[in-house]
Design a protein that fits this description.
Layout (H helix, E strand, L loop, with lengths): L6 H18 L3 H4 L2 H6 L4 H17 L4 H6 L1 H11 L3 H16 L5 H20 L4 H20 L15 E4 L2 E6 L5 H20 L1
Antiparallel strand pairs: 1-2
Helix pairs in contact: 1-10, 4-9, 6-8, 7-8, 8-9
Length: about 200
């Protein structure tokens, strides 16, 4: 997929998502909601799968973009390894089973277990680099899935915050890592933006 092309692919996906959102304008949130798709006759499972993709992208291209760009090679390894990790696959199966067949009163408990499962997996995978990268990767993975699966249903859930590494944004919303784009990543972002602008100009 495009996301596996590295930071350039991530920026391209985010650019396409931004254009899609601009097209829908104020209807974007409603059209990306679970209730919208169910009202059109889609099964809950299919509607859930569709909306989680866009909820995930909202984070990857928003609050998680700077962190993601800085540690993207590690995140790609995390995506590849967790896709075949028996422990992570068991977490996914448990979430699916409990979400559709479990007690709905405990849905947020099920979601929290799922988030922690991924957070631990990414921290372990990226821990071979350094502790800061491990913490950032764990937060990024947890927050991406929290936005994708649990943001509206379980607003009380939070991903781990480590003093000195994370800070709240304007006192609102989830905490984000205190990192900034390296000069190399800034240049990649600039190159992709110029390429996108030139492409639009030629159309």
């Amino acid at each position: 997929t495009i996301l596996r092309r590295g930071v350039t692919g991530l920026i391209q996906v985010c650019s396409a998502r931004q254009q899609f959102q601009a097209c829908l304008q104020q209807d974007y949130s409603y059209c990306m909601s679970l209730y919208f798709w169910v009202s059109f006759g889609r099964s809950v499972e299919n509607a859930y799968a569709y909306t989680t993709i866009f909820n995930s992208l909202d984070f990857m291209c928003g609050g998680g973009l700077q962190v993601g760009m800085n540690i993207y090679p590690c995140l790609l390894r995390g995506m590849a390894q967790t896709a075949a990790d028996p422990q992570v696959l068991a977490c996914i199966a448990q979430l699916n089973q409990t979400s559709y067949n479990g007690d709905p009163r405990h849905r947020c408990d099920y979601s929290e277990n799922f988030l922690m499962c991924y957070e631990r997996a990414y921290e372990s995978i990226c821990g071979v680099i350094d502790q800061t990268t491990a913490i950032q990767a764990g937060w990024w993975s947890c927050e991406r899935l929290r936005r994708a699966y649990s943001y509206t249903h379980c607003p009380q859930l939070r991903c781990k915050v480590a003093p000195g590494v994370f800070a709240a944004v304007d006192g609102e919303g989830p905490a984000v890592p205190q990192v900034y784009l390296s000069p190399e990543m800034q240049q990649v972002a600039k190159d992709v933006a110029l390429a996108e602008a030139a492409k639009k100009k030629s159309q």
